[in-house]
Amino acid sequence: MKNLITGATGFVGSHIVEKFRNEGEDVIGLARKSSDTSYLEKLGAEIHYGDLTDYDSVKKAVAKSDRVIHAGAITGEWIGKKESIEVNVRGTKNLLDASLENKIDRFVFVSSLGVMGLRNHYHTGVDVNYEKANDNYIDSKIETEKLVREYSEHRGLPTTILRPGFVYGPQDRRLMKRMLENFGKGRVMFIGDGKNKMNLVYAGNFADAVYLSTQTDKAIGQIYNVTDNNGLDIETFFYKIADLWGFKRPTKHISVPVAKVIANVLERTARLTGKKEPPVLTKTRLKFLSLNLDFDISKTIQDLGYEPRVSIDEGLRKTKEWIDKENPYKK
To answer: CA-to-CA distance for 264 and 250, rounded, in angstroms?
Structure first.
């Protein structure tokens, strides 16, 4: 089987490529010409240069493939609505059309748990309604999921949707950098009591789930939540980071109402002044830091045989080892 993996040079995509190569699968990584493909080449993946928004390049890549694993997207809380629709929604439609035309064996779409609403979750399963988040990235994922489901239910394309939680691990050149900078500057604090559950998933564990979803027909037409299912709260997570990297444990707490006022002011000011990067606290980050994010993955375990193999302690250790070796945040 030849597996076309979009977003292959990115954080999550690179872990998926590594998993499939370790399982002896052939991989074609879709990459833009400006991307660093050295890691993919090291893994023995074939490189196909193209862009999700360019149908001809997408069609040529799909034509060489048996499966499509779509992990490519423009991400972040600060992206514009126009670009999120162009890349995430229309780019996915290009892939879906090409996959349908070439009778692809399986189309696996990497979505987000955020499509079920940025609200408190207590063992939430997959069968809930979509909730817009007023966040261009998450809202584009909702529209894209709808597209994937339409091609599955009405056009006969065999699809599977995976919804990861907060992904962490080696190869992350953005989120962990920001987190460590905030720890170093003493800017990390708890919003509320810090006992809210997190939806963490180690990147390698998520890649396992992606691979497993391609190995059974049970997954066709299905949606799966994917987390590490470890019941970790945000206080424990922050303490683990502080202890491992040698920072002082955060002790400050602010209430959710106060944090909302601060986030609104900072975000409004940043947008009015045309800042290219989000402020230290935004409405999206506030929700991640303060909400209880507990999701039910029993269906994923039952259908796919998924079992998170890397613990939080091992995952953070692997992440630190990669950062210490690669020094990815040097200027």
So the answer is: 23
